[in-house]
C-alpha cells in the first residue's frame, strides 16, 4: 500500500479541498488508508472506505481524519482492487429464451430475477403447448472470471456464477416441484461498480422431483443490474 501511495501525486491541503466527490486518495495518518474523497473542512478530511455507486450510497463506511493527524495525502487515480471478487449484493435482471425437453420438444419462457447472494426467479413459460408460471429460489455462487484480473488495467471480462436451486411450476403440462442447476455468465468491465445494465447468458437444467430424468434444458439472455459486494451496499 505504501509503495502504491508513494507513486501517486502528493497533495497540499488547498488541493485536497478542491478534490471532487468520489476521487480516490491515499491518506497517511496513524495508519494508511485508501478511500474515496467526500469533503474537506479547515480541520477535517472526510472520505469513504468503499466506493459509493450512482444508485446506492455507502453506509457505515465513513472515515474522518483530523488535519493535525494527517502526515500525507496523495491522489490515487488507479483503482487496484478487483471488484469482481465475492458475491453480488444486488441483482435485478430481466430476460427470456427457450430450450428443449426430454422429448426434444421446444419450450419458451420470460421472466425476472431479483436478489443478491440468493435470488428469486419469477417466470412465465410455454411447455408442450401448455402455459405455466414458475417460482424458483437459487444461490448465486461466484466461480471465476475470464480473463483474470490485472491491477491498474480496465478490461471487459466474463464472470461465471453457479446457481443451484429449487422451484415449483404451476399450470398445464409437466413439472410441479423441481431442482435446478444453472450457470450464469455476465459480461462486465473492471469499472462496473458504478452500476449499469450488463448483458448475461444463463444455461439451466431442471430436474422434476417425480421424474428427474424427464426434465428440460433452457438458455436465456437478458440484461442485469449487478452491484458487487464491495461497491457500497451494506
Which key phrases capture this entry?
234 residues; mainly beta; SH3 type barrels; Porin; eight-stranded antiparallel barrel; six-stranded antiparallel beta sheet; 4% helix
Bin the helical content. Answer: under 10%
Number of distinct beta strands:
15
The top level CATH class name of the largest domain: Mainly Beta
Specify the oligomeric state. Answer: single chain
Read across the widest sheet, the strand sequence of neighbours is 7-8-9-10-12-13-14-15
Output the CATH topology of the largest domain. Answer: Porin
Rg on CA atoms, Å: 23 Å
The proportion of residues in beta strands is: over 45%
Please specify the SSE layout and strand pairing.
Elements: H1 2-6, E1 9-10, H2 13-17, E2 24-28, E3 32-40, E4 44-48, E5 62-66, E6 72-75, E7 88-101, E8 106-115, E9 118-127, E10 130-139, E11 141-146, E12 156-171, E13 177-189, E14 197-208, E15 216-228
Antiparallel strand pairs: 1-6, 2-3, 2-6, 3-4, 4-5, 7-8, 7-15, 8-9, 9-10, 10-12, 11-12, 12-13, 13-14, 14-15
